[in-house]
Queue: 4 jobs
Job 1
Amino acid sequence: MSQVLNTPQTMTIPLFVGQGKIAYGEKPVPAPGPGQLLIEVKANALCGSDRGQFYDGSATTPGHEAAGVVVGTGEGTVTAVGMPGVVFLMDFCGECRSCKLGFTNQCLGKRADYGFSHDGGYGPYMVVNENVFFPMDPSIPFGEATMLLDIMGTGGHAIKRALQVHQDIEAILIGGAGPIGLGVLAMAKLLLGSGMPVFVMDFVPYRLELAKQMGAIPINLAEQQANDVIRAAGFGGVDAAIDTSGKTAGRHTALQALNQRGVLVCVGHGQELNLDVSSDLIAAERTVLGSEYFRYQELAENHALILEHLPYLRQIITHRFGIDRIQEAYELFFQGDTGKVLIEQ
Ligand SMILES: [Zn+2]
Ligand SMILES: [Zn+2]
């Protein structure tokens, strides 16, 4: 049913003008077309993958980890005005071979990446196709709800990718304690049990401390060797390593820590990985695989988990800013001493 609440004609939006500078401009508030929803954005989380837009500039309004409330509905939609929820990054077609099997993160006819190809969640309002909106329980605060996306979604998907090839995981190594690494850590604990040993390596003491607080065994690569810490904890190696660093050195260290039958899941985009196929893969039957974002359907599973574990997950959020301080938020975030940083409107 088509309905739009009273909204202003224009809105102030941040302009990513490049070279690490964010200005402000005006834009008309968009109207939802057929099949679309108008969302009043309440929170959007900063992400390492915004780096390109922050330094190179962006023609669209960035923000791909948005939570908000529906304030307008286009023809043919069924979502009610007033419904809170989050926005799935990828506008999947729902009809291709991948989508039909539920692989919505591998859609062959993808129509948009909200926050990249189309305006995202740093504007006060955004329009999305209805299929990417995930309605949520109103008890979840909007800021915390953004964790359903890259934190729980991407983190949980990486763990599930590892489980596809290794069902008896006894220890995990995460290569990087940035927000995605913390998300993988949290989801490892929630999906595999709080007793699962999870090693997290990084160079940033602030992030390692946060990982420790969330139940990880920290490895400070500035002064420790990963294999030494893993052995000191009583393990010969790990069964799954999740690389969130995107660094060749980090992936190599992860590979060297893997047991026989171990699996390396690459989540962080970045540099290359060099393999000595005979010794690294064949002899020990190891697996290397990629993990990209997550399937829309995983939101329902993660929604149930966030309702149960909100205080634990909330620890990942360390800073909150209004949109008027977005410049400061990004500078702090890229400098490294943060967990997840939110813009709340
Ligand atoms: Zn992100
Ligand atoms: Zn598709």
Job 2
Amino acid sequence: MPDVVVIGCGISGAATAWELAKAGRSVTLVDQYGPASMASGWTLAGVRQSGRHPAELPLAMEAVKIWQGLDEALEASTGYTQKGNLRIGLTPEDLPALQVIAKEGQAAGLFVEVLSDAQAVRDIAPALSPAIAGATWCPTDGHADPDATVNAYVSAARQLGVETLFGEAVLSLETRNGRICGVRTASRSIPAGGVVLATGIGGNDLLAPFGCALPVDVRNVTVVRTRPLPPLLSQVLSVASACNSDAACAGRQQLDGAFRFTSGIKVWDGLMREERGRPIVAPTVGSLLETLQSFGDIVPAVRDAEIDAYWCGLVDQTPDALPVLDHVPGVEGLVMARGFSGHGFCLGPLTGKIMAALVQGEVSAVDISAFAFSRFSAPAASSSAPVTLHG
Ligand SMILES: Cc1cc2nc3c(=O)[nH]c(=O)nc-3n(C[C@H](O)[C@H](O)[C@H](O)COP(=O)(O)OP(=O)(O)OC[C@H]3O[C@@H](n4cnc5c(N)ncnc54)[C@H](O)[C@@H]3O)c2cc1C
């Protein structure tokens, strides 16, 4: 019998499984598909502190400390590189929002400044179009390879004895006297003393029998990956324009030279199919054209690249665009990391530590009071915070 079953093998679940195994727990890691098959594979994979909500910023800063030593800890390459993030303002009207980002970052002790003319930004990233008004600049942000990262966690976890069960969905949670005692899949029942829900957009079906649900709107983001180009851009870029929401985009050049860039966050039509054991959400022609246009306007050289792949990624947006990192009320031994609202990749390594602590009955080493499940029972929870992808 495993001490803990972790449901979901995105970055949150994989990191949790590894942390638990390091702490000497026996763990089974279950995913209905396989490693990084949903948000943690669809993602842009920016590892960003700047532009975070003040409550989340300390977590992102703590997570970046872990990223800096992660390759060594996992004995594998995550493709992590720390060359900065530029949040671009297209027009002078966008600059006040950038000033707020800089102020909030500085208040938390993060170096982030506003570059208020195009040339200053292009001195850092010469591949950028001159038709911009400025940017925030945070040199300690970065990016990583999402598949490599999740697979590195899985390999390291397996080496420590974690059992993995892929291609098998958890259909229900089992409890006895208000305490979790296992999970059930289509083919087996797995007893466990603790369960971690790291199920991304999924998981409310599992919570329903206990009368609770995480309020999430599922949103859609179009992603394009090109064939490799020569090195042009080492930072992560993003645009969230006050005047033109169609211009929203984010992107980066991977270490292999390919560009990976995204649209802004859109309404999802609910269509998803499965192909070769993976979930697929396809972009419309319109969203693809818009994404190519908006990122091409920011990095003109990308227009010469061949397209290698495109897909849509789904985002689990909560009403306040912050995650829940907490015990599930009323079910002892059940903890949850969900609702990352489009920015949970950077947090992943820290999420693993937090979830491992909670499911073992320990207190998180970082303050997670802002991420309590109970905040959604308050009346203010019904209003929706605007969400943008900043890379
Ligand atoms: C296009 C896009 C761009 C993004 N860009 C960034 C970025 O630049 N920086 C950043 O920090 N974040 C970004 N994000 C967000 C980030 O990728 C996610 O927040 C993060 O990957 C979430 O990881 P997770 O492990 O919590 O969830 P997921 O990766 O979604 O993993 C959940 C897993 O649970 C499994 N699962 C669900 N239900 C069950 C069940 N019943 N039984 C078994 N398995 C189940 C699923 O198959 C899935 O593999 C982006 C997201 C998208 C879509």
Job 3
Amino acid sequence: MAGITPDPATDILGIVDVQPTFMPGGELPVQDGDAVVPVINRLLAGPFLHAFATQDWHPAGHSSFASSHPGKQPFETIEMPYGPQTLWPDHGIQGSPSAQLHKNLAQARIELVVRKGFHREIDSYSTFFENDRRTTTGLHGWLQARGMRRLFLAGLATDYCVAWSAEDAVKLGYAVFVIEDACRGIGLPAEGGTTIDAAKRRLTAAGVQFVTSAAFA
Ligand SMILES: [Zn+2]
């Protein structure tokens, strides 16, 4: 899709987990994760007047950490009361330097920062709901109050926090776009390829549109 002009009354950029903990050198590095920062900054410098950001924000000993489950390794899956949960290396620790928004991210147009994953017993990939898909982060209420209808997502990681956010946003009635070159994924093995492939199939079927930042030129 070419030539998207965001309407400041209804369109907002959602910047998901652009934190050093998910970048090369961080605790849960996404390949090329830091490459999203300049792309997002270009979107914030022109096309989008409004943005919100999210931060993965876990207490030490969080239940999504493999280290909290004796004998388990990162990237194994366990069954939690709310469903299957992938286990991760310790990451996104509240207040730690690597959990801050990336220092080069242009923050002037970021009007809200949503922190998620702070309940010890439940993970939160989506910016809308924790992983039980019921406990709200409050973001929907804020977007509704602001009159936002179209959500453009960027950040980390394509196949987890971006994908789950996009899926929930569609269910909540937003028109949702994922800006592909402003995202990077983890890409664990999955049926028919990686979790990135699987997420893209699932989101496309749900009505999410995939675009690139060139569409906003
Ligand atoms: Zn996390």
Job 4
Amino acid sequence: MKDETAQSTPEGYNPPPRNSKQCKQDTCCIWSYVSGALTSAFRGPSGRCNKVARAAIRLGFHDAGTWSTSSGFGGADGSIALAPGEVDRPENNGLQDIVRRMKNWQRQYGVGMADLIQFAAIHAVVTCPLGPRMRVFVGRKDSNKPNPDGLLPGVNDSADKLIKLFNDKTIPPHDLTALLGAHTTSEQFFVDKSRSGAPQDGTPGVWDTLFYNQTLGTGPLPKKVFRFASDIVIANDPRARPEWESFSGPGGQSHWNDDYAHSYARLSMLGVNNMNDLTECSKVLPAAKPYFKGAGELLTNE
Ligand code: HEM
């Protein structure tokens, strides 16, 4: 019987039944079923991406980000879910629920954890209205060894410290600027607990460029918006500012979407030493939603 969670895609990929021989012969087939489950989990009733999607995007970063050119190990290896204690580090506060969901999906579909975490981070972005449909690869190796500590950024770090931290991960300021745009969907719960649930722009759950404008302080700032100190220092640093402004200006949405996709592809491969053995499964991802009523004002001018 065909699993109801599978979905056809813009390429017209219709997976064979889950337990069939044909499905087992196609590495991407099972991911189509994973994709169906994630679509249901990530989409809110209004069509925005919901808190589960947002946590999945952050989890993708926190698993992959524990790597640097001198760390020797770590990166996108699933350790945030598999290694004892890693998810309990203070910088991972709030990720426990999404890790629990990842473990359930892994049990249900029998896929690798490192791949599942990156697949979900990429799937969550395309689930958000206006989010790009990015390329997705599977075949990473899992690890249950806690990754090096101290390689994730702090919200009160200086621009110099943040830029160095990301440079050491082979991510230059331009790419950091693109990746920080993920805060267009986000909400904070632990930086200021008295403002738990406060978003980082006026349209959480929508992948628009309003975050870039509102972090710069151009235009009115809704009271509910909570800007991260780290975003403000990067936005104002000369190594990032021109790109930041370009994302926030006319034509910024497609420029940013392209750059985010490029930069996230790199992030999702940190510490992955068998890159040439991976299989591309982009064909199982759902279609992007390039329009959404109520997305950032600038969009309407593009
Ligand atoms: C300078 C680098 C970064 C810093 C300092 C930073 C810091 C933070 C902080 C403090 C939170 C709020 C956590 C909470 O209180 O609940 C957060 C949330 C989030 N971050 Fe970042 N972040 C950075 C980079 C990134 C990157 C590169 C991505 C993804 C590519 C990302 C994606 C997210 C998402 C999606 C959330 C929202 C989670 C939710 O709504 O539950 N962040 N980040």
